[in-house]
Structure formats: C-alpha cells, structure tokens
C-alpha cells in the first residue's frame, strides 16, 4: 500500500479503560497505590538524610526494618504547610473559575459528548508567578519558602491526593456527571486506581480533571524550581549553571503546556483517562514532587558543568522540545483542516477513518501518516524523552535519584504507547492496523 493511500473502513465499536477487572488488576492497583507514594517518600529521605543516595536509604530501610524506618525517617506534618497548601488550592480554584480564557472543545467521548473547557491557565500561571517572584524581590516573601517547608508540604499534598481520589470514586459511584462515560469494573481497588468517571464536573463547566491535572501541580512546578534555586543561592551564594539550565527546560515545558492548553483537552489525559488515583494523586502529588527532583537535588548537592557539557545538554534538550512541539502541533493542525494542507512542503498523507460512539452515532477522523506521525507512531514521546534526558543530565551521572524522572518517563511513555495503541485499535480497527503497517516504528525510528 503506498504511503499516500486513503482507506475508508468503518469500525462500529467504542473504547476506553478496562470495563471489567479481575483479581490480577485489583492486586496490580493495590501494589501501585502502595508503592508509588512510598517511592516518593524514599526520595525525600534520600535527599534529606542520605546525601542524595537512594541506595543508601534503601539499605538503611532493610537494616532497620520497614516499620521502624518509616517511624524514624518519614516526613512529619506541619500545620503551616497544610494551611499554605489549602490557600494555594483555593487561589488556583478561584483563578480557574473566574479568570477570562478561551473556550475550547475536547475530544468526543465514548458516550458521544463534546465538552467545552475554558483555557485560562496561562493567565493563572503568569499572575501566580508575578505575585510570588515580585513579592520575593520586594521582600514580602522568602523566595525559598517552598523549599524550607518541603517536608510539611509533602505530607499535605499526599493527604490531599488521597482524599481527592476517594472523593472522585464516591462521586463516580453515586453522582456521576455523564453516566454514559462512567465505568464500573466490579473491583473497588481498580476503580480507585483507574477512576470511575471520565469527566467529573461540578455543574456544567467546573471540570475536576482539567483543573487538577493542570493547576495545583503544573503551576507549582516552576515555582518549586524557583524556590529551590533560591535555596541554593542562600546556601552557597550563587546559582549554578546546571540549576539555571534545568529550570529553563522546565519553564519551557510548563509555559508550552499552558500556552497550548486548548491542545491539552484533546490529549489522552483529558480525552481518555478516567479520573482516579492515577490522575488525581498523580497530578496533584506525584508530579510536583517527582518532576522537580532535579532542582531539589541540585539545591542541596550542586553540580558544576563544563561549558561544552552545558552546550551539549542545551542543544539536545532544545532539539527534543522542537520535535515535541512540532509533532503535537501537526496532529491538531491537520485534523483542524481535515487533511487539506501541507506538511514539510508536501501535501499531507493520512488514513481517513470512521468510528462510532455508544449512542450509535458515527463520526469521522483521520490518522496522519506524514510529518512526525509518519516517522514513528509516537515521535512526540521520543521528543519528550530527549527533554527528560537533558533535564536529568544537568545533575551529572553520580546518583540515580535525579535520573528518576527520565526512568519514570521511559516506563510511563512506553506503557502509555501500549495502552493508547490498544485503545486506538478498538476505536479504529482495520484502519489502525493499516497505520501500523505504513508506520512500523512505535517510538524511536529504526529502533523501537
Ligand atoms: P498524544 O497526544 O500522542 O495522542 C494520542 C492520540 O492521538 C491517540 O489516542 C489518537 O487519538 C491520536 N492519534 C494517534 N495516532 C494518530 C495519527 N497518526 N494521526 C492523528 N492522530 C493520531 O498522546 P498523549 O496525550 O499521551 O501525549 C501528548 C503529549 O504529552 C506528548 O508529547 C507526551 O509526550 C506528553 N506527555 C507528557 C507527560 C508528562 O508527564 N510530562 C505524560 C503524558 C504525556 P484519537 O482518539 O484522537 O484518534
């Protein structure tokens, strides 16, 4: 089949997360819900008490026994941190609810709904950062306040992440916003992990998932970096180049996210993943704690890069960003023009598909086979990994801990590609098989 061929095959099916869960999925959910928060706490313990060595922290845990180790080393709660975090949530919720923004549409849900969102995240991000950074320079706020309260904040965000996940499950069972898009698996554990509702809302517009995925965690990401950079400055009297480079990579990633918030409503998180522990705890707790590990590490254990190392890391990371943005843009660009446009100076090629939703209606879509989507089926994931590699490389190669982000992203994105392809196959059937034939590589062309 030539690369420019257009095949039309209708696939009358719907898609989404598992509808039934047996004991294997329940146990898997339980293990992840127990293991990942423990990992997050172990990182903090390693940074604070074991010179950034996760292996030393693990060895100590084995020697002391898990219960006495947890009692002696786990972070303690602080009422100041709880009050600060509660205020943070309220301020971000206020911004989300009341700041002006662009009205945008998500992807059609399996139940046939086309939901609207108000993209005002960039404005919320700008106001928050101007207030915090401006306040720091004017002397109203200690710029290292987040870093100095990190222990208590870790407890506060964790608690909120768990409470939110329980509330989301309870709402899904008893007060679902869109019954047609709700999934109940028969396993309370699996439902807790994967989520019951696809788009839980307060009223018609206040979207639980959209708010929690973006605002409390991602707005905080760059503030946390800033605070750890200030902490480094207060400790050693200067900010290292490695800290500046990694903070700049994070800044680009976060600003890109908010600048393209409209696009985000059509990604897997918003379009397909249900709102359970994975997203509720993941985005409020895991994201701000794990994704900032490099600045947390550098603030305590500064790394000095040579000029050549700095330039090489910058070049690699920025190339990753360029591919990431360009691949993510191409899909939206071509779909918005129904394939009537050029990419890289040539008319685009694609596979035209039909799919049906559970209300029985048929819809059209297209799978792009040129541009980055013709290079590999997830070139955007490859580009994300390039950025992750560059971010971690700023911390040098002596410790595993600051590389956690790269290893986590590799597992996450590979697993996500498997999940996504399973879902795309059930949505597009033979058209998806045809796409895989035309674009044989999953993530890295020529390798995987
Ligand atoms: P994508 O944006 O890659 O979206 C995948 C969807 O795109 C598929 O489900 C399908 O949806 C559609 N699609 C698949 N193939 C084609 C094609 N050939 N042409 C047109 N549409 C196609 O997925 P993600 O939401 O996972 O990723 C978005 C970005 O976010 C990526 O760059 C990723 O790296 C990044 N990311 C970052 C994370 C982080 O924590 N930092 C976590 C996860 C993702 P449809 O139903 O519309 O056809």
Automatic annotation (TrEMBL):
Subcellular location as annotated:
Endoplasmic reticulum membrane
Q: Which UniProt keywords apply?
A: Cholesterol biosynthesis, Cholesterol metabolism, Endoplasmic reticulum, Lipid biosynthesis, Lipid metabolism, Membrane, NADP, Oxidoreductase, Steroid biosynthesis, Steroid metabolism, Sterol biosynthesis, Sterol metabolism, Transmembrane, Transmembrane helix
This protein's membrane topology, according to the annotation, is:
Multi-pass membrane protein
Question: Which EC number(s) does the record attach to this protein?
Answer: 1.3.1.21
Q: Name one GO cellular component term.
A: endoplasmic reticulum membrane
Pathway(s) annotated for this protein in UniProt: Steroid biosynthesis; cholesterol biosynthesis
A GO molecular-function term, please?
7-dehydrocholesterol reductase activity
Report the top EC class in one word: oxidoreductase
The UniProt entry, under InterPro entries, shows: ERG24_DHCR-like, Sterol_reductase_CS
Q: Which PROSITE patterns match?
A: STEROL_REDUCT_1 (PS01017)
> Is GTP-binding there in the keyword field?
no
Supply one GO BP term: brassinosteroid biosynthetic process
The reaction(s) annotated as catalysed by this protein in its Swiss-Prot or TrEMBL entry are: cholesterol + NADP(+) = 7-dehydrocholesterol + NADPH + H(+); 7-dehydrodesmosterol + NADPH + H(+) = desmosterol + NADP(+)
One Pfam family matching this protein? ERG4_ERG24
List residues traversing the bilayer. Answer: 27-46, 82-101, 122-141, 153-174, 236-255, 305-324, 388-414
Family as reported in the entry's similarity comment: Belongs to the ERG4/ERG24 family.
This one is known as 7-dehydrocholesterol reductase
User: Can you name the source organism?
Assistant: Lithohypha guttulata
């Amino acid at each position: 089949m030539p690369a420019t061929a257009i095949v039309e095959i209708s696939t009358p099916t719907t898609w989404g997360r598992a509808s039934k869960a047996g004991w294997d999925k329940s146990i898997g959910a339980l293990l992840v819900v127990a293991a990942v928060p423990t990992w997050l706490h172990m990182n903090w313990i390693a940074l604070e008490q074991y010179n950034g060595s996760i292996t030393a922290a693990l060895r100590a845990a084995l020697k002391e026994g898990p219960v006495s180790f947890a009692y002696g080393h786990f972070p303690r709660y602080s009422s100041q941190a709880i009050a600060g975090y509660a205020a943070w949530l309220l301020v971000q919720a206020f911004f989300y609810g009341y700041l002006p923004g662009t009205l945008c549409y998500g992807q059609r849900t399996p139940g046939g709904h086309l939901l609207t969102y108000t993209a005002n995240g960039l404005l919320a991000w700008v106001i928050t950062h101007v207030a915090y950074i401006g306040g720091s320079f004017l002397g109203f706020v200690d710029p290292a306040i987040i870093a100095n309260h990190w222990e208590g904040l870790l407890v506060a965000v964790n608690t909120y992440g768990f409470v939110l996940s329980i509330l989301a499950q309870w709402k899904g069972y008893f007060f679902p916003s869109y019954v047609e898009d709700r999934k109940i698996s028969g396993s309370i554990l699996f439902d807790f992990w994967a989520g019951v509702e696809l788009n839980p809302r307060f009223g018609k517009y206040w979207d639980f998932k959209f708010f929690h995925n973006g605002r409390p965690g991602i707005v905080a990401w760059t503030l946390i970096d800033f605070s750890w950079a200030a902490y480094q400055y207060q400790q050693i009297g200067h900010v290292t180049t490695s800290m500046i480079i990694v903070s700049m990579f994070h800044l680009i990633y976060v600003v890109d996210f908010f600048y393209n918030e409209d696009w985000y409503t059509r990604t897997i998180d918003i379009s397909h993943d249900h709102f359970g522990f994975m997203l509720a705890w993941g985005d409020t707790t895991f994201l701000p704690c794990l994704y900032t590990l490099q600045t947390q590490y550098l603030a305590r254990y500064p790394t000095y890069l040579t000029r050549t190392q700095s330039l090489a890391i910058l070049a690699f990371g920025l190339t990753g960003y360029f591919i990431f943005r360009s691949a993510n843009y191409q899909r939206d660009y071509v779909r918005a023009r129904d394939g009537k446009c050029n990419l890289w100076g040539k008319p685009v090629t694609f596979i035209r598909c039909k799919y049906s939703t559970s209300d029985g209606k048929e819809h059209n879509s297209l799978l792009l086979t040129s541009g980055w989507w013709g290079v590999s089926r997830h070139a955007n994931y490859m580009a994300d990994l390039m950025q992750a590699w560059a971010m971690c490389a700023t911390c040098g190669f002596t410790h595993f801990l600051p590389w956690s982000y790269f290893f986590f992203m590799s597992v996450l994105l590979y697993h996500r590609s498997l999940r996504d392809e399973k879902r795309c196959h059930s949505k597009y059937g033979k058209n998806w098989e045809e796409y895989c034939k035309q674009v044989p590589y999953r993530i890295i062309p020529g390798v995987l």
